[in-house]
Design a protein that fits this description.
Blueprint: H1 2-40, E1 51-57, H2 64-72, E2 81-88, H3 94-104, E3 110-115, H4 120-130, E4 136-139, E5 144-146, H5 150-156, E6 163-172, H6 178-199, E7 211-214, H7 215-220, H8 231-240, E8 248-259, H9 265-285, H10 299-317, H11 319-332, H12 336-356, H13 362-395, H14 400-405
Parallel strand pairs: 1-2, 1-4, 2-3, 6-8
Antiparallel strand pairs: 4-7, 5-8, 6-7
Helix pairs in contact: 1-6, 1-12, 6-12, 6-13, 8-9, 9-13, 12-13
Amino acid sequence: MTYLLSIIPLLIIFFGIINLLRMSIFLIGSDIYGLKKHLRHNKKPAYYPAISVIIPAYNEEKSIVHSVASVLGNNYPQEKIQIIVVNDGSTDKTEEIIKTFVLNHEIENVIIVSQENKGKAHALNNGIKNFATGELIMCLDADSYLEYDAILRAVSYFENEKVMAVASNVKIAKSKGILNLIQTFEYIICYQMKKAQTAFNIEYIVGGIGSMFRRNLLEEINFYDTDTVTEDIDLTMKILRKGNKKIRVVYGSDIIAYTQGVLTVPDLIRQRHRWKWGRYQTFLKNKNMFFSNEEKHTKIFSWFYLPFALYCDIAFFFEPLILLYMLYLIIGYKDVFTLVSAICVITFYMSMNIFAEQTISLKDKIRLAMLAPCMYFLFYFLSYVEYVALIKSLLNLNNLNKSISLNISSWNPIRRRGFLGVQTDNI
C-alpha cells in the first residue's frame, strides 16, 4: 500500500505535466489558426460549384424537417443545391413527414430515397453514388441543422486546391438540463482543439455533421467503408492514407452546425462507446500509418499525434486512481489547496476556450465563463461516461479484428427531444 501511495504522486506529476503541455500547445495552435484565418478567409467564395447535401435518416421524424429546412434556408444559390434524403428503413414516420413537407412547399431540389435498413454508411454511399450530381458533397445528420451561411463558408475553403475535406464547427442546440450544459461546454472545448489540429496539420476526424468533401476524391477512394461503426472517422483516415502533405483535411471554425445533445446517461454511454470502438476499428485498419516513414505523411502526424491519441486513453485509464488519491489528500490532510488549484486551472482553460470562440455572443460567453468553475465537478459525470465506454471497449479488444470482418455499420439510435431551431414557414 505504501509503495502504491508513493507511485501515485509520480503519475499525477507525469500526467499533469503532459496535460498542461497539451493544453498550452493547443491554445497556441488555436491562436495560430485564428491568425491565419483572419488573414485569408473573411471573404465570399470566388466560385459557386454545385453542391449535393446527403442526409441519411433512420427514425428521425422529430427533426428531419428542420434538418432539410436549414439547407433550404441557406444563403447559397438554391439552384446550385441538391438535397438527397436517404431513408434507411425507418420504422417511424420519417419518410411520410419529409414527403409531406416537400409536397406542401413544392420544393424541387429535394430527392427522397428509400432503402432497406443497412446502416448509415450504406445510406451515404447510396445517396452519393446513385443520386448526387454536385462537385462538392456535404453530409448532414438528420438530427442536426446548419447555420444560414454554413454552405457558403464551407465552399470557400475549397478554393485551396489542396483541401479535400472540411469539418464543421458543431454546437449543441440549446435545451434544458445539466447533461445538455455539460455537452455544450465539451463541444466548445473540443472544437477549439480542432483549430490547433488544423494549424499543425494533424486533423484526422471530419465528423459527419456538416462535413464537406470533393466528389472526385470520394470516387477515387471508393466512398465510405461499411465495416466500422464510425464511418466518419474511417473515411477521414481513408483520405489520409493518401498523405497529409499534398492534400489537406481541415476544420472550418466559421461553418456552424447544431446537433441535439444526448438526453440520458445510458444513451451517452452508448454513444461514447460507439465513438471509442469505431476509432479503435479505424486505427487497426490503418495501423501502418502509425510511425509511418512514408514521405507523404508528416512526422508530427504519424509519429506524434496518432500515437498520442492512444496515450490519452492509457492515461485516462488511471483517472479513478488519481481522483481517489486527490480525495485522500483533500479529506485526510485537509489539503484544500490541491482542490482549489485544480479548479483554477480548469476554469482558466475553459474560459480561454470560451472567449476564443468567435461564434458565441459576448452575453453567452460571460454566462458560460461564470459557470466554468462548476464544470470542474460536473465534468466528472462526463468522465464517468467516458470511463465506462473505455472499459467496455478494452474488455472487448480481442474481438476488434473480428468486428471489422463482420462488415457491420448499423445505426445506434438514441432518444431525441427534437428542436425548434429552424423556422420552416418561409421555405
